[in-house]
TrEMBL record:
A Gene Ontology cellular-component term: Golgi membrane
Family from the record: Belongs to the sulfotransferase 3 family.
Membrane-topology annotation of the record: Single-pass type II membrane protein
The protein, known as: Uronyl 2-sulfotransferase
One Pfam family linked to the record: Sulfotransfer_2
Main location (coarse class): Golgi
GO MF annotation list: sulfotransferase activity
SUPFAM superfamilies, alphabetized: P-loop containing nucleoside triphosphate hydrolases (SSF52540)
Cellular location(s): Golgi apparatus membrane
InterPro entries associated with the record: Heparan_SO4_2-O-STrfase, P-loop_NTPase, Sulfotransferase
Keyword vocabulary terms for this entry: Glycoprotein, Golgi apparatus, Membrane, Signal-anchor, Transferase, Transmembrane, Transmembrane helix
Species of provenance: Didymodactylos carnosus
Amino acid sequence: YVIYNRVPKCASETIRFVFREQANARDFSILNSRIYAPFDYNDTMQQKIISNIFKLAQPALYERHMYFIDFTAFQKPQPVYINVIRDPLQRAISDYYFTRATYDCVKKYPELCLKAIQGVSNVVPFFCGQHPDCQRIDDWSLKRAKQNINQFYTVIGITEDLYKFFYVLEKLLPLYFKNVCLLYMKEGSERAENQLYSKYKKKPSNDTIAILRRYLTHEYDLYDYVKSRFYTQYRQLVDLDKWG
């Protein structure tokens, strides 16, 4: 099984479109949960999600906005995890405008604007997991997120470079993603461009951007970590292709 526990506002509509087309071409099943929120679940709900996944005929891909679930904690084999993240500032702005009317609360209450109650979800818990402390967004949750990434995630791409994300998928998971790069270039790249760079109602001021960056320290730490890991992975696969 492959799980894409997608992060909001990270080109997921484009990626899901490509995955659906790929499922038709490669003959694997795909289950997309219609539940957008919450992202965290108690043990009973986690077990229900796991049970639903294992009911799928293999090969299968499961998509859902949810924090990482450790299947081994429930004595189940761990599936393949994949994901994509985005520059934290751009993602926060996109998330904010996606869910709320336009107004600028950052200058007065920046620590409140970057909260789920304002429609802005943090990325760290998506990789830290279901533990309540994962939502604190501190050094502990960041460290645990990185540990889970290293141990459980086959690839985490970045929205700014989706072609390379699909390239890595094609090389590492050919059963699901053989020829996916061609599919993306043919049918998905224009969608991604329109989705990623659509105009917002109001561009934040330089002061607002500076304030937001200060409150996104852990998010940028994780983003930079994932970005470095991803490009190292990509270069290694390109070298393997080049030298056979």
